[in-house]
Amino acid sequence: MRIRLDRTICDGFGVCAKHAPGYFSLDDWGYASLIGDGTVPEQDRDAVMRALLDCPVHAIIKIADNRPEEPPASPASAPENETVGGLR
Predict the structure, then answer these.
(1) Is 34 in contact with 60 (CB distance < 8 Å)?
(2) Is the dihedral of CA 31, 40, 47, 22 positive or negative?
(3) What is the pLDDT of residues 21-78, one digit of tens each?
(4) CA distance 18 to 31
(5) In a domain, 35, yes or no
(6) What domain count does the chain have?
(7) pTM of the full structure
(8) Which domain holds residue 34?
């Protein structure tokens, strides 16, 4: 999982640093900063998600994983000589 912190939205509530102090620090005015590059290992996911969900101004954003997906399967075409839906 990856996250991003939008410091322009942060209002300095400090909830993120309370829930996930290893990922968020507070400056002298109480505004949050992200510690590290935003990569969250599985063992810390719950704490960081709690910080994300409890942020009153939604300044923490979960970034979609960039995992390659399988290409969509092509629809099976009915052979030209077969009946489709009872019609020819």
Answers:
(1) no
(2) negative
(3) 999 999 999 999 999 999 999 999 999 999 999 999 999 999 976 665 555 555 555 5
(4) 13
(5) yes
(6) 1
(7) 0.70
(8) 2-63
Whether the CB-CB separation of 9 and 53 falls below 8 Å is answered with no
Instruction: Specify the residue for token string 């099976």.
Output: 76
Q: How far apart are CA 82 and CA 43, in angstroms?
A: 54
Write the CB contacts of 59 (distance below 8 Å, at least 6 apart in sequence): 5, 6, 7, 9, 10, 11, 16, 32
What amino acid is encoded at 87 in this protein? Answer: L
CB 3 within 8 A of CB 48: yes
Nearest to 48 by CA among 82, 18, 8, 76: 18
Does residue 72 sit within a domain? Answer: no
Which amino acid does the sequence have at 33? Answer: S
CA–CA dist 16, 74 (Å, integer):
44
